[in-house]
């Protein structure tokens, strides 16, 4: 049994190489220039938060915010 079966009965292979797109609001050109399609990003969430914040690769200390995860993916990612 796969570790990811809690994701609506899907296995890890069902999510491999899948893309989650998100909308970017009010981003600086400097942060955007450090990103390329296909880059890994950093995610930040706390148990009491109702959103997951996406940060650019290599960003630290709250700098480099790109946007937030769309609500339709929130539960899946937060649970993971």
Total of DSSP H or I helical runs spanning 4+ residues: 3
- Overall pLDDT level: 75
SS content category? alpha+beta
Please report the total strand number as a whole number.
Answer: 3
Low-confidence stretches: 1-7
| Beta-strand content bin | 5-15%
What best-fitting shape do the alpha-carbon axes yield?
A: globular
Strand order of the largest sheet: 1-2-3
The amount of helix comes to 10-25%
SSE series = HHEEEH
The value of Rg in angstroms is: 14 Å
N- and C-termini, Cα separation: 16 Å
For the sheet with most strands, the description reads: 3 strands, antiparallel
Describe the secondary-structure layout.
Blueprint (H helix, E strand, L loop, with lengths): L11 H4 L13 H5 L8 E3 L8 E3 L9 E4 L2 H9 L1
Antiparallel strand pairs: 1-2, 2-3
Characterization of the model:
The protein is an alpha+beta fold. It has helices spanning 12-15, 29-33, 71-79; strands spanning 42-44, 53-55, 65-68. Strands 1-2-3 form a 3-stranded antiparallel β-sheet, with no helix packed on it. It is globular and about 30 Å long. The two termini are 16 Å apart. The model is unreliable at 1-7 (pLDDT under 50).
């Amino acid at each position: 049994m796969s570790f990811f079966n809690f994701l609506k009965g899907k296995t890890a292979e069902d999510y491999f190489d899948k893309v989650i797109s998100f909308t970017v609001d009010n981003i600086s050109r400097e942060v955007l220039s450090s990103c390329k399609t296909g880059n890994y990003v950093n995610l930040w969430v706390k148990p009491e938060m109702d959103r997951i914040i996406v940060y650019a690769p290599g960003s630290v200390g709250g700098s480099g915010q790109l946007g937030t995860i769309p609500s339709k993916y929130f539960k899946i990612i937060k649970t993971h």
